[in-house]
Amino acid sequence: MKNLSIGMFDSGIGGLTVFKEVKKLLPKEHIVYIGDTARLPYGNKSPRTVTNYTLESAIFLLTKGIKILVIACNTSSALALHILQKKLPIPVLGVIDPAATEAVRLTRTKKIGVIGTKATVNSMAYQRAIKRLDPKIDVISQSCPLFVPLVEEGLEHDKIAHLVADKYLNRYKKTGCDVLVMGCTHYPILEGVIKKTMHKGISIINTGRETAKQVKQTLETKGILNEKGKGGCQYFVTDSPDTFREIGGRFLKEPITNIKFLKSLDYKDFLLSS
Ligand code: DGL
């Protein structure tokens, strides 16, 4: 069991910010990552569509023999985590609870900002997670839909990124928030811009970093942490591996190899051929 892979899912490339943190913390683990690049973005799709797509990828990863599933996508975590945890025979972790736990630990003003996709913000999943831990905390959310394309276009250092950040985040300066959760896979790439736009002293939470700690803790608790493995990764994508290689390489700051194109997420094919 210890030698099995960690399965990781995202709507596309952004989940590599979570992947990077897990790989850093658990270098001996093998990770199978799937990015549903043909159907991204999930952030502006309906809960039903996001849930269906997420289930398909999760089932595909199960056919790869994984010991834990990490839903790296905030939108999928917000909308589909619950059903996956109920239906899958292995531990399933999302990115929302780990980030919410750290945000609650850090806040002194009891006001937490959360930024994410429209679907994540509309789902109120962060509100629920934070209020479960401390009902007195106010959560002030803001969707930032232009952040995802900005990052994918490689414009994180361009002045347009500062203009967009200013437009979305200016309001936080008056809310009294002392913690801001970057509730979307792409936002850590914009962390510098976000930090510059926000008031000094605000704590910025990287959901990937918090999730990685939770993955380690879960593997330890279950006695399935791989301490002797060689590490490694295999990527699957539902659209062009070239685009994933190019943009993903920027996310990871290292070349990506070992990418396989998946023609279909119809898991029956894989079950029959395995
Ligand atoms: N991975 C998504 C998230 O974290 C962002 C990209 C998308 O909208 O698909 O919410």
Description of the molecule:
Helix 4 crosses helix 10. Strand 7 (179-183), helix 9 (191-197) and strand 8 form a beta-alpha-beta unit. The chain is globular and about 50 Å long. The chain is an alpha/beta fold. The chain is built from 12 helices and 10 strands. The model has no long low-confidence stretch (mean pLDDT 95). It has a 6-stranded parallel sheet, with helices on both faces. The protein has helices at residues 16-25, 47-62, 74-87, 96-106, 118-123, 125-133, 147-152, 159-169, 191-197, 207-222, 241-252, 267-273, and strands spanning 5-10, 30-35, 66-71, 92-93, 111-116, 138-143, 179-183, 203-206, 232-237, 259-261. The structure holds D-glutamic acid (DGL). The site of D-glutamic acid has 17 residues, from helix 3.
- The main sheet orders its strands as 4-3-1-2-9-10
Mean pLDDT: 95
Q: Give the amount of beta strand, in percent.
A: 15-25%
- Tell me the radius of gyration: 18 Å
Order of helices and strands: EHEHEHEHEHHEHHEHEHEHEH
Bound molecules: D-glutamic acid
Could you tell me the number of beta strands?
A: 10
Low-confidence regions: none
Helix/strand/pairing category: alpha/beta
How helix-rich are the residues, as a percent range?
A: 40-55%
**Sheet with the most strands, sense and barrel status:** 6 strands, parallel
CA(first)-CA(last) distance: 19 Å
Tally of contiguous helical segments: 12
Overall spatial form: globular
